[in-house]
Design brief:
heterodimer; A: mainly alpha; 13 helices; 79% helix; 0% strand; globular; B: alpha+beta; five-stranded mixed β-sheet; 21 strands; 32% helix; 21% strand
Chain lengths: 320, 518
C-alpha cells in the first residue's frame, strides 16, 4: 500500500510540474504584449518599458518560470498586477462562491433529473417518457447564456421577482444569497440535469428488467415499493459516476453563468484575469484548479485501491 | 407516525417562494445609488491608475485642484481660484481652498498638496509623471499656497490638474500604506472609499469630513462591474442598478422608447480615426523608411480614400446617429474648436478621378487593421463598402487589441482604425501623435511647420491665439492625412427619470455629486 501511495504521489508531482510549465508558457503565448494591456492604449514607450522592468517581463522565460515556481513552493503565488491583492487571497475569496453555485446547481440537477429519469423509465414509451426526453434534449441544447438572459428578462425585468444579478455572502444574508443564486444555479443545474436524466432513465430501464425485480413483482409487492425500495438505489450507481465526471463541466459552465449573472466567482476571475493579462493571477488560478483535480484523482485512486485491493495488485503486476 | 398535513406543506412552500421573490424595490435602500460599470478598474491610486473606469470612482472620492464643466470650462475645485501665471509662463501659483480635510480628517494644506504632486511626479511607476513632466519643482509658499516652477511655459498644465495629476492624497494614508495606497485610498471627496470586491463591486460611503456635505445626497454609492452590455441593460430595466454607464447606441434607441428612463448623451473628448502608416518601416523607434506603397507615398490616394467616406452616413449606420461626426482631433465642445472648419463631404466622382490620376483607375487594394470587437468591425465594414464604390478594395484584418497596437508601433500596418480617449486640453489629443518626435507618432509623419505651431500652442495662454494655432496645424495635418479623423465617440448614460441633477461632462465620467432622487 505504501509503494502504491508513493507511486501515485510521484505521478501527481510530475503531472503538476508539467501543468505548471504549460500554464506558464501558455499564458505568455497569448497574443499581445502584457505591458501594453496593463498600460492601456495610450501609454508611451517609457511607461511600457517601466512595466516590463517592474514585473520582470524582460527576463528570459525559463528564469521567470523558476522564480515563480520557487515562490509558489513557499505558498506565494504573487500579487495581482491590477489590484495588488495577494493571488492566494483572491482565490480564497472567489472559490467558495463558485463552490456554492456548483453545490446548488447539483441539488437542482439531482432534484430534476432523478424523478424525471425514473418516471421516464417506469412509464416507458408513454407520453411521460416523450415529455421528459424532450425536456432533456432541450436542457442539453439550450446554451447557458441564452437561458440566463431569458430568465433575467422574465423573472427580473418582466415580473420583478428576483434580482437580475449580484451576490451577497451566505453568512451575511442567507435569504438574499439564495434569491440571487437561484437563477444562476438553475441555469447551470438544468444543463447537468439533462445529462443525468438520460443516464437515470437508461440505468433504470436496465435495472427494471433484472431478475430480482421480476422476483419482487412475483412476490406480490406493489409497483411503488419495487421501484422505490429495489430499483432506484441500484440504478443510481452509474448515475453517481456520471455526476462525478460532470463536476468539471459544472466548473466550466460556471464561467459563462457567472458572467451573465455577475456572480463574482472563480469563473469570472479566470476570464477577467486572462483578458487583462494579469499573469500572476492566471497562473495562480490555473495552478490551483489543476492541483485540485490532481488531488481529487489521487484520492479517487487511493479510495479505489482501498475498496478493491485487486486494483492495487493489478497496478503492481502491470508495473513488474 | 403522524404525517404533516398537505395544506401545511403548501403554506410553507408559498411562504418560501414569496420570501425568495420579494422584489428589490421592497428592500431597496433609497439612500444608496447603484452604478454599473463595464470594466473593473485597476488600482485605485491616482498616481498609478491607468483605466478610464477608475476615473469614475475617483470622481466621487478624489477631488482635484481644478474641475471642468459641461462646456469644458475650467474652474477651481480644491483650489481657491484660477492659478496666477507669472515669469513668462514658468511659474504657476495656486491658492488653496481653506478648511478642507481629507477623508481621514487630515487637513489639506499646501504641504500635503506639494507632497501629492511630488508623489505623482516622482513615484516609480507613476502614470502621472509624463503629465507633470514640465514641472521642475513644487514649493510651499504659505500654508494655503503652492508654487509650481516649470521648465518651460506649458499652458495645458492647468488642464492636467483637472484629472488625476491634480488629486491631492492624504499624506497620513500614503505614509501608512505606501504602494498599497490604492487598496484603501484617502483623498478629499463627498464620499470615501469603503470596500472593494474585485470583479464585483466598489463601495464608497458619505464622508464625514467633506467641506460641502449637502452635495452628497446618497449615503452610499455601489459601483457594480457588469461587462456585458445586454446584462447591464437587463439590470437597469429590472431596477438592480440605477445608473448605466456606456450605453451602446443600439440599446440607447430602445431605452429612449421606454418612458421611465432618461438618457444623457454627450460628445466625448476623444476621436476615432484611420491612422495611415506613411514611413514607419521597421518600428517607431527606428529611422523612417520608404514603404513603397501608393497609400503611403501618394497623397492623392489618401485623399481619394477620405473622399469615399460619408461621415454622416457612417454615424447613422454604425451608431444610430448618436455619435458625432468630425474631422479634427478637437471635439466640437472645446473652446479651441474652430467652428469655421468644414469636414470634406463624400465625393465619389472626385475620389475616382484622384485615384485614376494616381495611376490606379482599375482599383487599388490595401489592408486595414481593426480591433477585434463587434463595434469596430461594424465601422470597418461600412468604410469598406463606401471605399469599394470608389475603387478601393479594403481588406479588413481583425486583430486582438494589444497585438494590434504592437504591430502598429512596429510598422506592420498600412492602415489602422483606432481612436484616442481624449484630453481636456487639445495638446493631449494632438502633440504626441502629430509632431515629428511625438511619443505616439507611429506613422513617422513629420512636418516642422506642424511642430512649430503645436509647440507654440503650448507656450501661449490666450484662447483665441491657441485656437488659431491649432486651426493652422489642423489644416496641415488634415492635408497630410496620416490620420483621417472620422468621428467623436459619445458617452451615453441611462438612469431613471426620477434621478435629478445629473450633469453630462464631455469627459464622460459620472459625477454623482449634486444628484438626488426626486
Amino acid at each position: 500500500m505504501f509503494d502504491f501511495l508513493v507511486q501515485r504521489a510521484a505521478i501527481s508531482v510530475v503531472t503538476l510540474s508539467v501543468i505548471s510549465m504549460i500554464v506558464f508558457t501558455g499564458v505568455r503565448m497569448i497574443p499581445g504584449d502584457p505591458a501594453r494591456v496593463m498600460a492601456g492604449t495610450e501609454a508611451d514607450a517609457a511607461g511600457l518599458e517601466e512595466i516590463r522592468e517592474k514585473y520582470g517581463l524582460k527576463d528570459p522565460i525559463p528564469f521567470q518560470y523558476l522564480r515563480w515556481v520557487g515562490l509558489a513552493l513557499r505558498g506565494d503565488l504573487g500579487e495581482s498586477i491590477r489590484t495588488r491583492e495577494s493571488v492566494v487571497k483572491v482565490v480564497a475569496t472567489k472559490l467558495p462562491i463558485t463552490i456554492e453555485l456548483a453545490f446548488l446547481s447539483l441539488l437542482i440537477a439531482v432534484g430534476i433529473a432523478i424523478p424525471a429519469g425514473v418516471l421516464a423509465a417506469v412509464r416507458r414509451n408513454t407520453v411521460w417518457d416523450i415529455l421528459t426526453s424532450g425536456a432533456s434534449l432541450c436542457g442539453v441544447s439550450v446554451p447557458n447564456f441564452w437561458l440566463g438572459i431569458m430568465l433575467i428578462l422574465f423573472f427580473s425585468v418582466r415580473l420583478g421577482w428576483l434580482p437580475a444579478s449580484g451576490f451577497v455572502p451566505l453568512w451575511e444574508n442567507p435569504l438574499d444569497n439564495l434569491r440571487r443564486m437561484l437563477m444562476p444555479s438553475f441555469v447551470l443545474g438544468t444543463a447537468l440535469a439533462a445529462v443525468l436524466m438520460r443516464q437515470t432513465r437508461n440505468s433504470m430501464i436496465e435495472v427494471m428488467s433484472a431478475d430480482y425485480i421480476r422476483t419482487a413483482y412475483s412476490k406480490g409487492l406493489a409497483g411503488r415499493v419495487v421501484v422505490f425500495r429495489h430499483a432506484i438505489r441500484n440504478s443510481l450507481i452509474p448515475v453517481v459516476t456520471i455526476l462525478g465526471l460532470q463536476m468539471g463541466a459544472l466548473m466550466s459552465g460556471a464561467v459563462v453563468t457567472e458572467q451573465i449573472f455577475v456572480v463574482p466567482g472563480f469563473g469570472r476571475l479566470i476570464v477577467e484575469s486572462v483578458f487583462t493579462r494579469d499573469y500572476p493571477l492566471v497562473q495562480g488560478v490555473v495552478l490551483i484548479t489543476a492541483s485540485a483535480y490532481v488531488l481529487i484523482n489521487l484520492l479517487v485512486d487511493v479510495s479505489y485501491s482501498l475498496l478493491d485491493p485487486r486494483i492495487r495488485v493489478k497496478g503492481s503486476a502491470g508495473d513488474a | 407516525m403522524q404525517t404533516i398535513p398537505k395544506g401545511l406543506w403548501l403554506i410553507v412552500g408559498v411562504g418560501a417562494v414569496v420570501a425568495l421573490t420579494l422584489t428589490d424595490a421592497a428592500i431597496a435602500q433609497k439612500k444608496t445609488l447603484v452604478v454599473a460599470l463595464n470594466q473593473d478598474p485597476d488600482l485605485l491610486d491616482p498616481t498609478l491608475a491607468r483605466t478610464y473606469v477608475g476615473r469614475i470612482i475617483f470622481s466621487q472620492m478624489c477631488e482635484k485642484l481644478y474641475e471642468i464643466d459641461e462646456s469644458l470650462r475650467i474652474s477651481p475645485q480644491l483650489a481657491a481660484n484660477m492659478p496666477a501665471i507669472s515669469d513668462g509662463g514658468r511659474t504657476v501659483t495656486i491658492k488653496l481652498r481653506s478648511g478642507v480635510k481629507f477623508n481621514d480628517g487630515t487637513p489639506m494644506d499646501a504641504e500635503s498638496v506639494r507632497f501629492s504632486l511630488d508623489r505623482h511626479r516622482t513615484l516609480k511607476g507613476s502614470n502621472r509623471a509624463s503629465e507633470l513632466a514640465p514641472v521642475e519643482a513644487v514649493e510651499v509658499v504659505d500654508p494655503l499656497t503652492v508654487r509650481l516652477r516649470l521648465k518651460a511655459p506649458f499652458s495645458p498644465l492647468v488642464a492636467q490638474l483637472t484629472d488625476r495629476a491634480g488629486m491631492p492624497l492624504s499624506p497620513t494614508a500614503v505614509n501608512k500604506l505606501g504602494d498599497k495606497f490604492g487598496t484603501a485610498p484617502v483623498c478629499v471627496g463627498p464620499w470615501q472609499f469603503a470596500e472593494r470586491v474585485a470583479q464585483d463591486r466598489i463601495v464608497v460611503e458619505k464622508s464625514a469630513h467633506y467641506f460641502d456635505p449637502a452635495q452628497a445626497k446618497f449615503d452610499k454609492i455601489i459601483f457594480r462591474i457588469i461587462p456585458d452590455d445586454n446584462v447591464r441593460l437587463a439590470n437597469l430595466r429590472s431596477g438592480d442598478i440605477d445608473l448605466m454607464h456606456q450605453v451602446s447606441p443600439t440599446d440607447a434607441t430602445a431605452i429612449k422608447r421606454e418612458a421611465r428612463f432618461e438618457l444623457s448623451n454627450v460628445t466625448g473628448l476623444g476621436y476615432q480615426g484611420i491612422t495611415i502608416n506613411l514611413r514607419n518601416k521597421t518600428g517607431k523607434q527606428n529611422p523612417p523608411g520608404d514603404l513603397g506603397t501608393p497609400l503611403a507615398n501618394d497623397p492623392r490616394v489618401r485623399e481619394a480614400f477620405e473622399l469615399s467616406i460619408d461621415r454622416e452616413a457612417l454615424n447613422q449606420v454604425a451608431w444610430d446617429g448618436l455619435f458625432t461626426p468630425g474631422c479634427t482631433p478637437i471635439p466640437p465642445i472645446s473652446v479651441y474648436f474652430d467652428k469655421s472648419l468644414k469636414c470634406p463631404v463624400r465625393d465619389v466622382a472626385r475620389a475616382k478621378k484622384l485615384l485614376a490620376d494616381a495611376g490606379h483607375g482599375a482599383g487599388y487594394s490595401f489592408e486595414m487593421v481593426i480591433v477585434n470587437n463587434p463595434r469596430e468591425r461594424r465601422v470597418g465594414e461600412v468604410i469598406q463598402q463606401m471605399a469599394r464604390e470608389v475603387g478601393f478594395n479594403v481588406t479588413l484584418r481583425a486583430s486582438e487589441f494589444a497585438s494590434a497596437l504592437n504591430d502598429n508601433d512596429a510598422g506592420k500596418h498600412q492602415a489602422f482604425l483606432i481612436g484616442w480617449s481624449g484630453r481636456v486640453d487639445p495638446d493631449g489629443n494632438i502633440h504626441q501623435n502629430q509632431t515629428c518626435k511625438g511619443s505616439l507618432n507611429a506613422t513617422h509623419a513629420c512636418d516642422e511647420r506642424i511642430d512649430a505651431l503645436l509647440n507654440r500652442a503650448r507656450e501661449v495662454t490666450e484662447v483665441d491665439q491657441r485656437r488659431a494655432l491649432y486651426r493652422e496645424a489642423t489644416d496641415l495635418f488634415n492635408a497630410r492625412r496620416n490620420i483621417i479623423y472620422i468621428y467623436h465617440q459619445n458617452y451615453i448614460v441611462a438612469f431613471p427619470k426620477n434621478l435629478k441633477g445629473y450633469k453630462a461632462v464631455p469627459d464622460g465620467l459620472i459625477r454623482v455629486k449634486g444628484t438626488a432622487w426626486n
